[in-house]
Amino acid sequence: VQLVESGGGLVQPGGSLRLSCAASGFTFSRYTMRWYRQAPGKEREFVATIGGSGGGKYYADSVKGRFTISRDNGKNMVYLEMNSLKPEDTAVYYCNGDAYWGQGTQVTVSS
After folding, report:
1. Which residues on neighbouring strands pair with residue 78, listed in sequence order?
2. Can you tell me the distance from the alpha carbon of 111 to that of 12, in angstroms, rounded to the nearest whole number?
3. Do residues 82 and 59 touch, judged by C-beta distance below 8 A?
4. What is the pLDDT along the chain (111 residues), one digit of tens a residue?
5. Taking the CA of residue 10 as centre, how many other CA atoms within 13 Å lie in the half-sphere pointing to its CB?
6. Residues 82 and 67 sit within 8 Å (Cβ to Cβ)
7. How many Å apart are CA 96 and CA 107, to the nearest integer?
8. How far are the Cα atoms of 40, 44, 72, 104, 108 from residue 15, in angstroms, in the given order?
C-alpha cells in the first residue's frame, strides 16, 4: 500500500494550491479518504473527508468554504483544492485511507 502526496509549496496569503494524493496497493474506491495536516508544534488535525463513491464530504470548520476535497476512482487519486489560503494553513498535509498514511507535503503560506 502506498499513498504519495504532491502539490505543496510556498504561496502568498490569499493564494491557491491543489494537493494530490496517488494511491496504490488497495481497492481505492472502497475506502473513505481523508486529508489531515500538522503545523509545527501542534497535533495532527483533520481537514476533510470524502466517501468511497465521492459523496460524504465533510470539512473542518477552519477550512469550510475555502477547501474542496475530490477524488477520481479511475485514477486512484484524491485531491484537495485550497483557496483563500491563510498563514494559519501552513502545515504538512497528509493523505489518509484506512490505516495508511502518506509521507506528507509541506504547504507554507507567507508573504
Report:
1. 21, 71
2. 5
3. no
4. 899 999 999 999 999 999 999 999 999 999 999 999 999 999 999 999 999 999 999 999 999 999 999 999 999 999 999 999 999 999 999 999 989 999 999 999 999
5. 2
6. yes
7. 17
8. 21, 23, 24, 20, 11
Query: Which residue type does 4 have?
Result: V
Q: Which three cell numbers stand for residue 29?
A: 474506491
- As given in the structure block, the three cell numbers for residue 99 are 490505516
HEC assignment per residue over the chain: CEEEEECCEEECCCCCEEEEEEEECCCHHHCCEEEEEECCCCCCEEEEEECCCCCCCEECCCCCCCEEEEEECCCCEEEEEECCCCHHHCEEEEEEECCEECCCEEEEECC
* 69 DSSP β-pair partners: 80
- Name the one residue in this structure whose C-alpha cell is 473542518: 60
Q: How far is CA 72 from the centre of its chain?
A: 14
